[in-house]
Prior knowledge:
By secondary structure, this protein is an alpha/beta fold. About 45% of the residues lie in helices and about 10% in strands. The chain contains 18 helices and twelve strands. It has helices spanning about 5-15, 25-30, 50-55, 70-85, 95-100, 110-115, 125-130, 155-160, 165-175, 200-210, 225-240, 255-265, 275-285, 320-330, 330-340, 355-365, 380-395, 400-410, and strands at about 30-40, 60-65, 90, 140-145, 150, 215, 220-225, 270, 290, 300-305, 305-310, 370. The protein has a five-stranded mixed sheet with strand order 2-1-3-11-4. A three-stranded antiparallel sheet has the order 8-5-9. Strand 6 and strand 7 (about 220-225) form a beta hairpin. The longest helix has 17 residues, at about 380-395. The protein is globular, with a radius of gyration of 26 Å. The termini are far apart.
Amino acid sequence: MKKSSILVLVLLLICPALFAGGGSEASEAEEQVVKFWYHFDNPETALNPLIEKFERENPGIRIEAERVAWDVYNQKLLTAVAGGYPPDVAQVKLWWQPQLVEMGALLPLGDYIASWDGKDDIYENVWELTRYTDGKQYYMPLQMVILYLYYRQDMFDELGLEVPKTREEFLDTAKKLTRDTDGDGVVDVYGFGIRGARGGHDWWGTFVLSSGAQFFDKNGNSGLTTPEAIAANQWFIDLYRVHKVSPPTTPSDGFKEIIANMISGRTAMTIHHLGSAAQMEEALGDRISAAPVPRGTEGYWTSFGDEENAVFAATKVPDAAFKWAAFLAEAENNAIWQKSSGQVSINKSNARADADRFLKATTDSADFAGVLPAHPGTAEFVESLWPALMQQAFAGEITSAEMMQAIEDHFAK
């Protein structure tokens, strides 16, 4: 027998594990890890039950979840994409899609969705709103986030006011609600809490995009610098500068401030979505209520401020990544997610007949909910341009026309 054959035989007798195909190290190597980035308004919200359920149902796949603070989420994601190390799946906003597609960051999901059993349980309008302009589906629906009007029912009852249905009624109501309640000569309740900081474009859109302004008309031309659009923007600026129906802190007020002001009674109306309902109702009970936003001069507009999941093109585990995104979109699991997020399920089978006043305000607004343009400049408009311009306009540093011209120029690039 040759020496080499003897050596192999000895090794087999002494260390059979070296030649085994099913050892523990091999099993560990076969485990697929899906890195998932997400955010919740409430940092205490736990994703663990869904992860545990998924991993039980999908042995061999492990979810490595990271909660990212909203204030840095977009920038962190873009940095990760540019650096070549994005997560496999991430919670995303609709207005980020053009920029991410332009970067080649997203994996088209059409073939996966076509063979996914749950596709017909998703509202068709959600598929339509999230489908990109090239006809491809890069986003997996997760939840519907439609904005509506919150109002202090107790203050309305005290003053005998009705919920405003039009822009003119809204201004009149906001003026009546803005008052000095303790008689010290200083206003202590303001009619409307405006989010002047990042994220406040939805407050702006409610009144400006419903009253003559549009990013692009049917011919693809800008509709932001027409006399009607400039006047609509001036009307919004005047809520703060002229009528003073919003707090002095308006230019810097963000999410936390507008909700805290409603709870404390500093403001009587604001705009947000179902995600704030539990917190508001816990603090105020039946003193807080909700309704669709008022009608502008040309119709209604409110934000379909969606949340979706995207699978990134750089993933090494595309099948496992889609399984996780699809798992979160299935009715049973999506209902669990919504209990944490406080938002509306994207599944027809999860529709509730006994909708409370907050869910009713959401569903009553669905027919006129709109989205920002599918344009590579939209993300920058939301994240930095709009807040900077709005704060300058509130401070009187630029005119309404200058603000709208700057937005038009941005989208013309």
